[in-house]
């Protein structure tokens, strides 16, 4: 039986409370730098939460922590109009844990938990940086990003994270930086035939590297591109994850029947007098018949009623003028 020590006074009680293990959320220097650099790549389309929030979205849903975390994320998504969250936590069991949460229609769509290793910050690399707000070029160097379910989900998550404004054409000088995502050597037992989420084969690490582009003369119309390391540089280890709900994923992947280019060309049924503006909104023109404004019923006001000074009765005006002149002569 364990001996229970009772404090003798308030001072000893505070000392005993300080020695007890405490639950809390902490990040650490690695995660703070990683999240800071990810925000720098997303600027200005990113918001930083400075307070420490006790969020554990991958905890079992039958506990209060998991359900409260999901409800908190949905609340913040609706309040900040955010479609994605990046959560940093570190513990003895899962050090340097970086969790990606994707939202759709104010609800959690899917979650990927990763561990950060071999992190190199953007500040430690002395090289020119890209302009904030520019859309990066994403490069995925492995066939597992198209065959393995876990890496397919990770590729979709990273593209959603760094995705910017949808563009139809690319200006070559506007591509200032490239984000390269590659994998460590794939084990021989991990092939396309046995790719499944239940496989016991350890998954390879994910290497994320960021480079700035430099266009050099090549003697032809197409310039020679030179890549310079910009940072951040990190390796991700895949940990826990959740698959998206099939019905919610079906709604998220739903696309309009006609593309923007088809609408501009007038394709489809009943597309007359319709156009797409610069913001991508569909606008239509409505034609109405000719209106007779003389018969338009307006609001009746006491100050607008006809009086003695209305124009149109010339005889009455002349008689009143003559009577007024006679009174002046008699006086």
Indicate the mean pLDDT. Answer: 80
Could you tell me the strand content as a percent range?
15-25%
What's the architecture of the domain at 24-165 and 172-186 and 202-245, going by CATH?
3-Layer(aba) Sandwich
Shape: extended
- Do you know the CATH topology of the domain at 24-165 and 172-186 and 202-245? Rossmann fold
How would you describe this structure to a colleague?
This protein is extended. Helices cover 27% and strands 22% of the residues. The chain has a domain at 24-165 and 172-186 and 202-245: Rossmann fold. The chain has 8 helices and 10 strands. The chain has helices at 10-19, 29-42, 64-80, 144-147, 149-162, 246-252, 260-264, 314-330; strands at 84-89, 97-104, 107-120, 137-141, 177-183, 206-216, 224-229, 233-242, 274-276, 282-284. With 331 residues, the protein is an alpha+beta fold. The strands form 2 sheets. Strands 1, 2, 3, 4, 5, 6, 7 and 8 form an 8-stranded mixed beta sheet that branches.
Summarize the structure.
Keywords: Nucleus. The chain contains eight helices and ten strands.
Sum up the structure in keywords.
331 residues, alpha+beta, Rossmann fold, 8-stranded mixed sheet, two-stranded antiparallel ribbon, 8 helices, 10 strands
Write the layout of secondary structure elements.
Layout: H1 10-19, H2 29-42, H3 64-80, E1 84-89, E2 97-104, E3 107-120, E4 137-141, H4 144-147, H5 149-162, E5 177-183, E6 206-216, E7 224-229, E8 233-242, H6 246-252, H7 260-264, E9 274-276, E10 282-284, H8 314-330
Parallel strand pairs: 4-5
Antiparallel strand pairs: 1-2, 2-3, 3-8, 5-6, 6-7, 6-8, 9-10
């Amino acid at each position: 039986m364990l001996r229970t020590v009772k404090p003798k006074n308030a001072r000893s009680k505070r000392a005993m409370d300080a020695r007890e293990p405490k639950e809390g959320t902490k990040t650490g220097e690695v995660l703070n730098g990683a999240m800071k650099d990810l925000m720098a790549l997303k600027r200005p389309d990113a918001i930083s939460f400075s307070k420490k929030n006790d969020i554990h979205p991958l905890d079992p849903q039958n506990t209060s922590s998991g359900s409260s975390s999901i409800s908190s994320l949905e609340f913040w998504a609706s309040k900040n109009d955010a479609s994605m969250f990046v959560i940093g936590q570190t513990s003895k069991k899962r050090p340097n844990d970086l969790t990606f949460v994707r939202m759709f229609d104010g609800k959690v769509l899917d979650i990927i938990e990763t561990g950060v290793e071999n992190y190199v910050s953007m500040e430690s690399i002395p090289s020119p940086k890209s302009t904030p707000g520019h859309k990066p070029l994403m490069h995925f160097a492995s066939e597992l990003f198209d065959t393995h379910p876990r890496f397919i989900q990770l590729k979709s998550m990273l593209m959603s994270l760094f995705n910017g404004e949808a563009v139809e054409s690319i200006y070559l000088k506007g591509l200032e930086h490239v984000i390269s995502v590659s994998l460590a050597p794939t084990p021989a037992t991990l092939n396309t035939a046995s790719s499944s989420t239940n496989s016991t084969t350890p998954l390879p690490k994910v290497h994320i590297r960021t480079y700035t582009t430099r266009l050099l003369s090549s003697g032809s119309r197409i310039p020679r591109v030179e890549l310079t390391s910009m940072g951040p540089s990190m390796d991700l280890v895949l940990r826990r994850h959740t698959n998206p709900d099939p019905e919610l994923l079906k709604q998220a992947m739903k696309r309009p029947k006609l593309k923007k280019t088809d609408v501009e060309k007038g394709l489809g049924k009943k597309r007359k007098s319709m156009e797409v503006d610069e913001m991508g909104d569909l606008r239509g023109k409505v034609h109405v018949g000719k209106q007779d404004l003389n018969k338009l019923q307006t609001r009746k006001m006491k100050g607008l009623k006809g009086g003695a000074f209305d124009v149109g009765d010339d005889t009455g005006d002349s008689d009143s003028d003559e009577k007024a002149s006679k009174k002046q002569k008699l006086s």
